[in-house]
């Protein structure tokens, strides 16, 4: 069975509230959707969110990468030999991980459908007894003035969320105040994860995290405290504080993940498909985490249900994944898709539908 056709389109979904981090502010999900079609008409879907401040990818660069490099390289290849397609996909151009991820996800979706299996069952074949059918995601609290963040946190708790991922990174002392007031408001039983999005220097990170520890704020982890390329800084912060450090923007590849684990540059790894270039490389990182005994989070950018569903399937399939930051669909005002994992508040339920489960995508596609 050969890959017959590749098509692209765009979708725009408004957010419930603006998404604000130390790096950017976004009001809607405006992503490229990829559709791949086999000779028998079976379709697979992928998604690419332009996140220039993290991946370097824009809408224009993603489309150009798929249109002029990826599609001509892999079209017509044998879908039964998925590793060969992934090798071609990886080597046809440097970087452009978001474009690669969208096509990778679509191919995995299509491949699983042709195998007549849910993707999480296919990815979990090495540990079938450990495969999960229910996950719990955190919910992101955007960085704002403290009072607004407290209100957003209380609203999240009212909706049933027990784990909050609080964005900080815009001032050490102010960040401590934000977390202190949120903790006072939500109580001691709510899990708080702190995400600095590279917003601190090494010294700011250590002093801010230490202040949170001294105040007894009960932080589960701190994510990406310093710049993505500052591996020595990650190592320094990890060694200086008691709170576990989660690497995010520092991990784009298997090599990045192994370096961090070998150098003890982080206690935990956040795997995001848009950084790894898709499921194929993410699975390699999971394999490395198993070898090092490191626990992982599966996270997402500001994505809608197509690519987040792929992350859900990976999280469900691998035992090294103990945390989920897969709240993209929860941040969207509407769910325009048919099928896929079911979101009920913080809980995500996987069904036994083939592939990632998405059956309807309301997008006007252009074949390329």
Topology:
Layout: E1 3-20, E2 25-38, E3 43-48, H1 59-74, H2 82-91, H3 97-114, H4 119-123, E4 134-136, E5 139-141, H5 146-158, E6 163-167, H6 172-186, E7 191-195, H7 202-214, E8 219-223, H8 231-240, E9 245-247, H9 254-263, E10 268-272, H10 273-276, H11 279-292, E11 296-299, H12 305-317, E12 321-325, H13 328-331, E13 338-339, E14 342-344, E15 347-349, E16 358-360, E17 366-367
Parallel strand pairs: 5-6, 6-7, 7-8, 8-9, 9-10, 10-11, 11-12
Antiparallel strand pairs: 1-2, 1-17, 2-3, 4-15, 13-16, 14-15
Helix pairs in contact: 1-3, 2-3, 5-6, 6-7, 7-8, 9-11
Features:
368 residues; alpha/beta; Enolase-like, domain 1; TIM Barrel; eight-stranded parallel β-sheet; four-stranded antiparallel β-sheet; 39% helix; 24% strand; racemase and epimerase activity, acting on amino acids and derivatives; Dipeptide epimerase; magnesium; isomerase; Dipeptide_epimerase
* Largest sheet strand order: 5-6-7-8-9-10-11-12
Rg, rounded, reads: 20 Å
Helix run count: 13
Major sheet attributes: 8 strands, parallel
Please give the CATH class of the largest domain: Alpha Beta
The CATH superfamily of the largest domain is known as: Enolase-like C-terminal domain
Helices and strands: which structural class?
Answer: alpha/beta
Average pLDDT works out at 96
- Categorize the overall geometry: globular
Helix and strand run: EEEHHHHEEHEHEHEHEHEHHEHEHEEEEE
Q: Report the CATH architecture of the largest domain.
A: Alpha-Beta Barrel
Q: What is the beta-strand fraction?
A: 15-25%
* Helix content range: 25-40%
User: What's the CATH topology name of the largest domain?
Assistant: TIM Barrel
Count of domains: 2
Low-confidence blocks of residues: none
Distance between the termini: 20 Å
Total strands: 17
């Amino acid at each position: 069975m050969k890959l017959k056709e590749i098509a692209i389109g765009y979708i725009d979904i408004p957010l419930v509230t603006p998404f604000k981090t130390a790096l950017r502010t976004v009001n809607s999900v405006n992503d490229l959707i990829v559709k791949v079609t086999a000779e028998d008409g079976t379709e697979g879907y992928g998604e690419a969110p332009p996140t220039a401040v993290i991946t370097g990818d824009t809408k224009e660069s993603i489309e150009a990468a798929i249109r002029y490099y990826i599609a001509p390289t892999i079209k017509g290849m044998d879908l039964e030999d998925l590793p060969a397609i992934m090798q071609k996909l990886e080597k046809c151009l440097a970087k452009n991980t978001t474009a690669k991820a969208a096509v990778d996800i679509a191919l995995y979706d299509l491949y699983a459908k042709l195998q007549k299996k849910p993707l999480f069952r296919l990815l979990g074949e090495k540990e079938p007894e450990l495969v999960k059918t229910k996950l719990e995601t955190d919910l992101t609290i955007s960085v704002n003035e403290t009072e607004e963040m407290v209100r957003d946190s209380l609203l999240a708790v009212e909706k049933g969320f027990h784990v909050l991922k609080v964005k900080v990174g815009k001032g050490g002392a102010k960040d401590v105040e934000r977390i202190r007031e949120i903790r006072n408001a939500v109580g001691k039983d709510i899990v708080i994860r702190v995400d600095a999005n590279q917003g601190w220097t090494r010294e700011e990170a250590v002093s801010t995290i230490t202040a949170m520890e001294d105040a007894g704020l009960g932080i589960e982890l701190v994510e990406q405290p310093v710049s993505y390329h500052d591996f020595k800084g990650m190592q320094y912060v990890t060694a200086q504080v008691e709170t576990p450090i989660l690497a995010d923007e520092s991990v784009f590849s298997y090599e990045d993940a192994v370096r961090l684990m070998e150098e003890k540059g982080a206690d935990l790894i956040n795997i995001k498909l848009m950084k790894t270039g898709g499921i194929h490389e993410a699975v390699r990182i999971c394999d490395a985490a198993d070898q090092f005994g490191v626990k992982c989070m599966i996270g997402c950018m500001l994505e809608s249900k197509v690519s987040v569903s792929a992350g859900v399937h990976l999280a469900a399939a691998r035992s090294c994944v103990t945390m989920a930051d897969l709240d993209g669909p929860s941040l969207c005002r509407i769910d325009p898709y048919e099928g896929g994992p079911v979101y009920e508040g913080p809980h995500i339920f996987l069904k036994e539908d083939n592939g990632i489960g998405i059956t309807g995508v309301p997008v006007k596609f252009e074949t390329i």
